[in-house]
Every structure is written in C-alpha cells, then in structure tokens.
Amino acid sequence: MKVSDLLVRALENEGVEYIFGIPGEENLDFLESLRKSSIKLILTRHEQAAGFMAATYGRLTGRTGVCLSTLGPGATNFFTAAAYAQLGGMPVMFLTGQKPIGKSKQGRFQIVDVVGMMKPVTKMARQIVDGNNVPSLVREGFRVAEAEKPGPVHLELPEDVAAEEVDRVPFEVTRWDPPGASQSALKKAADMLHQAKHPLLVVASGANRDRTHRAVRAFVEKTGMYFCATQMGKGVADERHPRCLGTAALSDKDYLHWAIDKADLIINVGHDVNEKPPFFMHEGGAPVIHVSFFPAQVDDVYFPQHEVIGCMTANMRSLAEMVEPSQSWDFSFFERVHAEIEEHVYGAIDHEAFPSPPQCLVSDLREVVPDDGILSLDNGMYKIWFARNYRAAEPNTVLLDNALATMGAGLPAAIGAKMVHPNRKVVAICGDGGFMMNSQELETAVRLGLDLVVLILRDDAYGMIRWKQAGMQFDDFGLQFNNPDFVKYAESYGARGHRVQAAGELKTLMKQAFDQGGVHLIETPIDYSENERVLYEELAKKTLSLSEHRHA
Question: Which of 16, 272, 328, 332 can pair with 11 through a Cys bridge, CB separation 3.0 to 4.6 Å?
C-alpha cells in the first residue's frame, strides 16, 4: 500500500474518529487514503480552529485528537493551537504536509522548518523520512501525547514519501498505568493531615481526569475537608458541595484566599505550573503537600514541603483510605468564609439591571444550562466572572483556558465539545473581540448540523485590557472598536441570530435555542462596571471585615 494508506490505517488502529483541518496539495495522497477510511474529515475554515477542536477532543476524551494542514502558512497557523494544547495538557496530533524531500521543482516556495518550529510547543516533532517508520512513529506519537502530562505531538509527511509503496502493518495498541507513590510518601502525607488543625484541599487542572475526579470526590466525602478549585480544576469536585469554597478566579485577595491564609496545611492536587497560580506561597506560610504525576517545579511562589508523586487516582484513593477525620481539625473559620461566599459571590444579584452585570449573566446561565451542559469560554473579562460565580457540578463542564489564555478558542472548542458529546447542551461564550478571531467557524457548525448556542458578550472593546488600563490610571486609549450586526452576521451563515434588549430576555432566548436546535447566536450587552465595584472596592472592604476573624 501507499505510505498515506498506511498512515490512515495506523490512525484507524488508534481509534481516531475525526480529523479536523484544511488539506492542501501536498496532502492529496493522504486525502484520498482518508476518503476510503472510517475516519471522518471535519473541514474547517482556519487551521488554528482545527487545532482548537482537536485539542478539545483530546481534553474531553483523554484520547488523542488529530488535525491536518498543508505546509507553510497552513502549518504556521497550527502554532498557537499547539501551544494551547501544550500548556493546557491536551493530547493532540498535528499532521502537516511538506514538499517532496527527494526532488522538488519549486525550490524553496512555501518552505519553512515546520518540525523545528513545532518542537518548542510539542512533546515530539518528527518528519516521516521513511514510510516504513509510520507504524512506530504513530504508535509512539499517541503514547507520548496521552502520557502525563498530556500534550501535542507533530508528524510531517512529505508529498513524495506519502506516495511511496510499503509493506507494513500498524503496531498493536498497548496501554499502561503509571505507578503510585511509595507507602512512606503516602504515610507522611496522612500524618501531616492528621496533625494539622486547619487543613485545606486545593484541586487543580491535573486532577481533571475521568478517573481522578472520582478519587478526589471520594477523598472529600471521607474526610469532610473544605476545598477550593483552580479555574481549570472546576467541577472536579462538585462546587455545590457544602464544603466547597469556590474557584480561585484571582491569585490573591478574594474571599477564598482568607481560607488559604488561615490554613495550616494545604494539600494541592494536580497543580500545574502552566496554570495561573490560585495562591502564592510565602516564607512562614502554611506547608503544602504536592500531589501530582510529577515533582513540583519550584519557583518563587510555589515550593511545596512534601510531595506525593505518581498516579493521582491511585494516590488519592490511598489517602482516602489512610486519612480519618481528626478531632483536632477546626473548620469554624472556613465555615465563616463559606457563608461570606454564599452571600457575596452567589447571592445579592441584581436581575433588573440592563445591560446585565456579569453576576446576573452567570446566574442566568447557571439556571438554564443543565448540570452536564458544557460552557466553552473564550478569553476575556467575563472568564473571571464565570470562574468565580458559576458553580460547576461535573468535570469538564466549564472549558476555559487559564494556561495559554488565548483568544479565539471559544467557538472552535465548543464545536469540538459538541462532537464529543452530541446529546449534551453546549454553549460557546465569547467576547466580541475573541469571537471575531474565529467567527468563520459558524459556517462549520452550520454545515455539520450541530445544535450549538453561541453567546456574544458585547462591550465594543478589548474589555479585560481596558479594565487593567484603567486600574493603572492610564487614559482610555487604543482598545475600542466597532462590530458587525451580529444578528445579520449569524443569519448570513445560515444560523439564527438573536439580540437581548431587556433584562430577563437572555434566559428566554437560551431556552428557545435549546428547544429549537440548530446553531443560534445570541448577542447581549454586558456592563463591566462591576469589575471596579466588586473586584477592587468590595474585596478591599471585606478584607477588613474578615481580618477580625482570621486568627480566631
């Protein structure tokens, strides 16, 4: 068979369902091989979007997503998506074409060193020089992509190699489980927890795995410890739980940080240095137990005193068996923090204001989106509010990027999520700035016949940077723009467009969109004046209020 046939068979052997991307002339042998296969090509309108979709497939399934581009500009468009997958821990294989490496009549036309470009943002980047190596390269690529920490890999298939004849078959797919920690490391962690007075659990992105989240929940139920999550750890433990202190949307000075400051021991499960820190360690602060697949990467704000390294699922199960609720534990201060969070984060919402403040918008979404529904957030000011105010009941139901934090990923990631979970409600939440970076994928969603809601939060500006600009006492400059008529824009692609024009309309429109099916775009204005009132003024005042109880 041709090398391109062998490559497609190797991908089928790995269980690949979809390949997202845009072929070019250098991929035509591969495209013909793909036509005859069981794998479905999802043609996108931009290679970056294809990478986001494949990465989301990997994020939600734990299996490697696959995407395809040609050489040159098609491949360079993959770079941001590869960085997104690398920092976010998402297994994905990037396949790119290349001019013939034996003999080319086009000189250096469109030639860049794609393998060299991809090496810094992948776990493995290789050119297929000999078609006989396809079985080993594909098998190794999938193993590397899915091993902890999951991430991207890259294979480049030159045009002349793709057309060569070979007589090989794919390698058998094998699985392996990483070992757990030593008994001495587990016992020391258990002893530290038993000796603590105010232990606190922090759940981070590395724990957001299918099996690990069950072990974390079992640990919470067994011990009764209070816990909080990082942004990418949302939903690992149910945020409606009475011991949940919410999500660290900020790195410091929010309500839950008073619990972190009060804790005399923090067990940090799944910490990833690539995620924005949920808290800062300091000399003389509470000791930290680092539970992860890997040893900690020590820096100025993270230097744990004990580490439990290995399979987090096995280790959390072991700790749940070894740790008993201690008579010395005192959670009275955490109870006070919990009450403050219930009142000031989740309560006292103005549902009559229009344009809606962020808390109202988040509350409305929480009311109409089912617990297994998926929110796919782009990047903007609203991400802080959804991280802080939206209670996630299940893992991977709030897809946000707190690692690369790239704009333009919200809609493509939502498309990927809907393909993985066709029977669940999926909502892409985008600012007007981020949406326009990959808005062309509305056509992809319509062509695929997806049921998808795209919510655009309109403020006619790059709102988060504008907020930070104001916070630094700079003049309002360089961050405002004009927008198209989003309703007509959606309709031009064959989607249905809606505009929220009064308080309370969003919930009605969301319910209608869910009931009717198809692709719906809903534009709503948003009032970000709450940024200043809550995130600066209110938290500063509450710092004084809670300080009286901090050392109680």
Answer: 16
**Which has the closest alpha carbon to 158: 32, 4, 40?**
4
User: Which sequence spans correspond to the domains of the chain?
Assistant: 3-163, 183-342, 349-534
Which amino acid is located at 195 in the chain?
Answer: Q
Q: Could you read off the pLDDT of 159-206 as tens digits, one per residue?
A: 999 999 999 999 999 988 888 899 999 999 999 999 999 999 999 999
Residue at 12: amino acid letter: E
The 10 Å CB-count burial string (b at 16+, else e) for 279-304 is bebeeeebbbbbbbbeebeeeeebeb
The correct answer on CATH 3.40.50.1220 for the domain covering 183-342 is yes
Give exposure, 329-357, as e/b (b: 16+ Cβ within 10 Å). bebebbebbbebbeeebbeebeeeebbbb
For residue 429 the two structure tokens come to 């939440």
Beta-strand relationship, 398-399 and 426-431: unpaired
Q: Which CATH superfamily is domain 3-163 in?
A: Thiamin diphosphate (ThDP)-binding fold, Pyr/PP domains (3.40.50.970)
What would the pLDDT profile of 292-309 be if each residue is shown by its tens digit? 999 998 888 899 999 999
> What are the φ/ψ torsions at residue 375 (nearest 5 degrees)?
-100, 130
Please give the DSSP secondary-structure letter assigned to residue 171: P
Contacts 24+ apart (CB under 8 A), 108-115: 110/71, 110/72, 110/73, 111/71, 111/72, 112/71, 112/72, 112/75, 112/76, 114/71, 114/75, 114/76, 114/154, 114/156, 115/154, 115/156
Nearest to 117 by CA among 128, 125, 129: 125
Q: CA 148 to CA 151: how far, in whole Å?
A: 8
Q: 183-342 and 349-534: same fold?
A: yes
The pLDDT tens digits for 47-103 are 999 999 999 999 999 999 999 999 999 999 999 999 999 999 999 999 999 988 877
In the block, residue with structure tokens 């759940």: 203
Q: Count other C-beta atoms under 10 Å from residue 405's C-beta.
A: 18
3-state secondary structure of 550: helix
Angle at 551 between CA 547 and CA 552, to 5 degrees: 105
For domain 349-534, give the CATH superfamily: Thiamin diphosphate (ThDP)-binding fold, Pyr/PP domains (3.40.50.970)
Q: Are 365 and 283 in contact (CB under 8 A)?
A: no
